[in-house]
Write a structure and sequence with these properties.
This protein is of the alpha/beta class. The chain has nine helices and eleven strands. Belongs to the ABC transporter superfamily.
């Protein structure tokens, strides 16, 4: 993905302001920032739910400016809160995973070819969710639902995973287990979060996003400093340890 001087306006206000950012295929990157900084807008921009201002800057995804949205989403494995909310409670887990092949955000019934069904079952195994295949989505816990979404994202063998706040609403144990699963996928990761502990060791580059602008971008050890984080979150933060991170907030 290559963005050059991109601006996005939402609800009459600037959500991303002249952002330039390049993420290579297969790269492991975290986009870190507080609530309201533009992270969700960036996710929607990448998966083409939103578009930048046509008169300001340019954007290419996988080398192309124009995409059939359905085809683009087949190149990405997407895990977002919006997607989880769009899956009907009565949808079977297997149907939810197979629907990932269609490149659509919602779930549309698809009987699936034998090859797709086999790939969906293999993805459930990879996400440690094979035991959930006979259940319906609405009966899952938050942690189980996240694992099914990861399986859905993996089933069509995308080049990269786009993850928006992947451990939202999970308890400590479930969040840790989910992050360990993500580490084993072997896929390029674009991780969008405000949680420092989600930045797993495989993430080697961090982009700090504040008020719709890039505050810092570079190698994880250089960007993740107490000074940068204090500026990012507008409070005095002391960073302790290195991967997984913990932080002490001073008031």
């Amino acid at each position: 993905m290559e963005m050059r001087d991109v601006t996005v306006v939402r609800d009459g206000r600037i959500a991303l302001d002249s952002v330039s950012l390049t993420i290579e295929r297969g790269e492991n990157v975290a986009i870190l920032g507080p609530n309201g900084c533009g992270k969700s807008t960036l996710v929607k921009l990448i998966d083409r739910e939103l578009y930048p201002r046509a008169d300001h800057g340019s954007m290419r995804i996988l080398g192309r400016q124009r995409w059939n949205v359905t085809e683009l989403r087949k190149e990405l494995g997407i895990v977002t809160n919006d997607l989880q909310a769009q899956i009907l409670p009565e949808t079977s887990v297997l149907d939810a995973v197979v629907a990932g092949f269609q490149g659509k955000l919602g779930v549309y019934y698809d009987e699936g070819t034998p090859e797709r069904l086999a790939a969906a079952q293999a993805a459930l195994v990879a996400a440690e969710a094979a035991h959930l295949s006979d259940r319906v989505f609405g009966a899952l816990s938050s942690g189980e639902a996240r694992r099914v979404l990861i399986a859905r994202a993996l089933a069509h063998d995308p080049g990269s995973l786009l993850l928006d706040e992947p451990t939202t609403s999970l308890d400590l144990v479930s969040a840790h287990a989910l992050l360990e699963t993500l580490r084993r996928t072997g896929k390029g990761l674009v991780l969008v979060t405000h949680h420092l502990e989600e930045i797993i060791p495989e993430i080697d580059r961090v982009v700090l996003l504040k008020a719709g602008r890039i505050l810092a971008d570079g190698p994880r050890r250089e960007v993740m400093t107490s000074q940068n984080l204090s500026q990012l979150f507008c409070t005095d933060i002391v960073l302790q340890g290195d991967g997984p991170y913990s932080a002490q907030v001073r008031r």
